[in-house]
């Protein structure tokens, strides 16, 4: 049995896995981290560089890609070492910083998705008033809320130890030198899950259900008059199809988020009521399953968005450094 530090009483026990298992875990997690960082960095460069992509929805996607990039670049590497070694080598204060940022960025993702669903609602269900409802000021407000509220919630909860109120006994029992554990009491687990996941998730599902219903009705109407179109109507229908495809794509992104994070938030709620019977290794695996969502988002863009694939080619071949490359047309207006 190896301890984190032999000279310290109450030191954490390091993992007893063989070197082959550790190396395999490191390789697997490094691949996830690299895919997360590279994929989201490509989204950030694409939307920032190409002027054609400077739209309200894309600015929200840009902000969300920044969240996923930071999660992959700053949070996941430290989590990787903790997951494989079962020890925390970066100090108690940085443990609080890491945990706070982890909660903040995870919560910020679903806040972004909530606002993206609102954006898609107006684009598909009320297109005539879309530009007046979703303008630059509204987008800035959405982005600020998506960052500031999760930051205040996460850092306040961790640094004020609000998550431990009512769970002091279990924390004192499992706490050890060289550990970095996130423990919720019954109350804090419910509050954190409701604020960070369940309420925003329920709102998104309701909005996308409405979008899907309206899109189907509009599709039937378009099919009914498809043989009597004027040139203006053709342009309107192309625009509508683009908006509907964007809504579908973002709906898939939202579904991926719910699938990836639901197991973790469900366990966060039930674990305190079951006297913390869920093994820490399972909780850790659920966290990484949630992290995987940040890896999947750029893959969804690459699969569904032609502009992303074209932008990726331009970036990979270095054409992004050419003069006036920012004015490149990635799709037909």
Outline the structure in words.
- The chain crosses the membrane at residues 23-47, 59-83, 103-122, 134-160, 190-208, 252-274, 286-308.
- Keywords: Cell membrane, Disulfide bond, Endoplasmic reticulum, G-protein coupled receptor, Glycoprotein, Membrane, Receptor, Transducer, Transmembrane, Transmembrane helix.
- InterPro entries: GPCR_Rhodpsn (IPR000276), GPCR_Rhodpsn_7TM (IPR017452), TAAR (IPR050569), TAAR1 (IPR009133), TAAR_fam (IPR009132).
- Residues 39-301 form the G-protein coupled receptors family 1 profile domain.
- The chain has 333 residues and is mainly α.
- It has one domain (37-327): Rhopdopsin 7-helix transmembrane proteins (Up-down Bundle).
- It is built from 10 helices and no strands.
- 34% of the residues are buried.
Fraction of residues in H or I helices: over 70%
Please name the fourth-level CATH homologous superfamily.
Rhodopsin 7-helix transmembrane proteins
> What is the gyration radius calculated from CA atoms?
23 Å
The DSSP helix count reads 10
CATH secondary-structure class = Mainly Alpha
Calculate the mean pLDDT score and round it: 84
Number of domains: 1
How much of the sequence lies in strands comes to under 5%
Following the backbone from N to C, one meets helices and strands in this order, namely: HHHHHHHHHH
How many strands?
0
Say what oligomer this is.
Answer: single chain
- The helix-and-strand class reads mainly alpha
Low-confidence stretches: 227-237
- CATH topology: the name is Rhopdopsin 7-helix transmembrane proteins
Which of globular, elongated, flat, extended, rod-shaped describes the shape?
A: globular
Second rung of CATH, namely the architecture: Up-down Bundle
The separation of the N and C termini measures 64 Å
InterPro entries: GPCR_Rhodpsn, GPCR_Rhodpsn_7TM, TAAR, TAAR1, TAAR_fam
Transmembrane segments: 23-47, 59-83, 103-122, 134-160, 190-208, 252-274, 286-308
Family: Belongs to the G-protein coupled receptor 1 family.
Protein name: Trace amine-associated receptor 1
């Amino acid at each position: 049995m190896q301890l984190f530090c032999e000279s310290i009483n109450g030191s954490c026990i390091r993992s007893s896995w063989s070197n082959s298992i550790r190396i395999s875990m490191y390789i697997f997690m490094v691949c996830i981290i690299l895919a997360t960082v590279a994929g989201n960095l490509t989204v950030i460069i694409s939307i920032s560089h190409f002027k054609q992509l400077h739209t309200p929805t894309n600015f929200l996607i840009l902000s969300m890609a920044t969240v996923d990039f930071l999660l992959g670049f700053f949070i996941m590497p430290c989590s990787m070492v903790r997951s494989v070694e079962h020890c925390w080598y970066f100090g108690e204060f940085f443990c609080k910083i890491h945990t706070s940022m982890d909660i903040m960025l995870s919560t910020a993702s679903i806040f972004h998705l909530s606002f993206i669903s609102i954006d898609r609602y107006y684009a598909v269900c009320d297109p005539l008033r879309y530009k007046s409802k979703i303008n630059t000021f509204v987008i800035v407000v959405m982005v600020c809320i998506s960052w500031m509220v999760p930051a205040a919630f996460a850092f306040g909860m961790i640094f004020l130890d609000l998550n431990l109120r009512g769970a002091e006994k279990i924390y004192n029992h499992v706490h050890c030198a060289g550990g970095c554990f996130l423990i919720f009491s019954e109350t804090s687990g419910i509050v954190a899950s409701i604020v960070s996941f369940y309420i925003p998730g329920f709102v998104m599902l309701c909005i996308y259900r409405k979008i899907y219903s309206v899109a189907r009705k509009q599709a039937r109407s378009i099919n009914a008059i498809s043989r009597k179109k004027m040139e203006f109507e053709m342009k309107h229908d192309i625009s509508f199809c683009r908006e509907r495809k964007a809504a579908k794509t973002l709906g898939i992104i939202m579904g991926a988020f719910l699938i990836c994070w639901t197991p973790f938030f469900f366990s966060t709620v039930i674990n305190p009521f079951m006297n913390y019977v869920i093994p820490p290794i399972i909780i850790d695996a659920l966290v990484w399953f949630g992290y995987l969502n940040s890896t999947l988002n750029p893959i969804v863009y690459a699969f569904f968005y032609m502009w992303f694939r074209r932008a990726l080619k331009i970036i990979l071949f270095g054409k992004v450094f050419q003069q006036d490359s920012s004015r490149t047309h990635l799709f037909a207006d």
